[in-house]
Amino acid sequence: QVQLVESGGGLVQAGGSLRLSCAASGRTFSRYVMGWFRQAPGKEREFVTAISWSGGSTYYADAVKGRFTISRGNAKNMVYLQMNSLKPEDTAVYYCAADPRPWSIVVVRTANEWDYWGQGTQVTVSS
Question: Is the pLDDT of residue 74 over 90?
Fold first, then answer.
């Protein structure tokens, strides 16, 4: 089992950058596929990006491709989301998620199918 705690959210102007962090507990962190999701008010939770156990594979939603970068540090049980060129439509609560299944299975899963979640961190982008 793994517990996740996000940090790094805040208020930023359009065009700015933020770096989110997700601290994970558990000795088997390196065996989990890690992902970021977001949920804006009145909308469903949506996939943002995911990274494989080794960090060798990543996948991004079209809306963030080229602007966001996911990375992980298995030695520190950390996952990061670097967000650049932020837009007002990126405003949402951002959630860190983890799943122990193989990459090919997890990467196509919907939000409801991931096993573990953090409590979320608010990101607000002003225009």
Answer: no
In the chain, the DSSP E strands lie at: 4-7, 10-13, 18-24, 33-39, 46-51, 58-60, 68-73, 78-83, 92-99, 116-117, 121-126
Asked if the model's pLDDT at residue 51 lies above 80, the reply is yes
Report CA 45 to chain centroid distance, whole Å: 12
pLDDT at 109: 85
Spell out a b/e string for 10-47, using b for 16 or more CB atoms within 10 Å of the CB, else e. eebeeeeebebbbbbeeeebbebbbbbbbeeeeeebeb
Structural tokens at position 22: 């997700």
SS3 of the chain: helix, strand, coil, percent, to 5: 15, 45, 40
Long-range CB contacts for residues 62-65, cutoff 8 Å, separation at least 24: 63/89, 64/90
